[in-house]
Fold:
Amino acid sequence: MNMREEIINQHLIDPELCIRCNNCEEKCPTGAVTNDGRNYVVNAELCNACMSCTPGCPTGAINVWRPVRKDAAYSTTEQYQWTELPAADAALVTDEGAPQVAAGRGAPASAMQPRENLYTRNAPAIAVVKSNQRITDPASSSDIHHIVLGFGSTDFPFFEGQSIGILPPGLNTEGKPHQMRLYSIASKRDGEENVRGNLALTIKRVVDEYQGQPYHGICSNYVCDLSVGTEVEVVGPFGASFLMPDDQEATIVMICTGTGIAPMRGMIEQRYSAIGYRQGKLALFYGGRTVQDLPYHAELKQLPTDFLDFHIALSRVPNVDRLYVQDLIEKRPQQVASWLTDDNCYIYMCGLKGMESGVLDAFAAVCEKQNLNWETIQAGLDENHRLHIETY
Structure:
């Protein structure tokens, strides 16, 4: 066996970029992706490069390949100890390269080309808190904040649909730094309120019960409590697929719940400022418990109705039947079918993971009503990068 036959492109996961969301392990059909509670790793003996694990990785941490000798592939034990990826051995680079990312991960053809991973845990960007405001009703149990970070002269370019990582200070119970937490950018590319270098985040304070005691989410509470002028360590930006088309004629359909509105807000602002509302075709299906729980509700309602086709689903209004975003979709079979079959329509979904299956089932129900084959349409949506999903 010659040297070339002994070399493989080993699939790895970047521990610096990984946010431990578990999407890759859930989607791996061979059991190759595992974790030890700290690092997610890939077993080279089980990985068949099927790429099932790549869609849904929000940071691109999953898209790493290293040329290695087959008999010296990195073991899972080695990978569990990594804090960063080892350098590739240039002497082993082959002509074949790594497998291509699976369909569905790509951005629309007209989307701008983003820059990613400019800042890492070991070399983060420093941002300053410009403002921090609660944007849900004080009586609401949903404490959501609109936080503006300013990067000043630091070069931190971003596009709508990208995310950043925030590094909360302090150590965990094992004496190690807290993991990075990922948040979607809620601003257009020119900056929050047209101030280049400023970006907004939409963050919900996490307060849960664990073993009978209140548990406060480490990063969400850290960020929601930040004072103006405080410095924050930021990693990223991340994301090269959940990007809006720059084609002025493209239709954009957005489906979200709660803080899933963040990337949609950026897209709406960009379309409105870039081409004027009379040219854009936008639809938003927005779900929450009550109106008081919806971030940016008043802001969105002020937009012209011939610019934004705005629909709200509320699930906890007293004496009113519960309504979810998938219900709104099923109520408009002809309109939704026209979007699904329009090659220049792009669909974005962001919010709680439980929403995802409901919306996809609603699409299937619409197709059945309109004598369309959902499986064929879904394959086309993935192949042409027209369906983009980020759920958590």
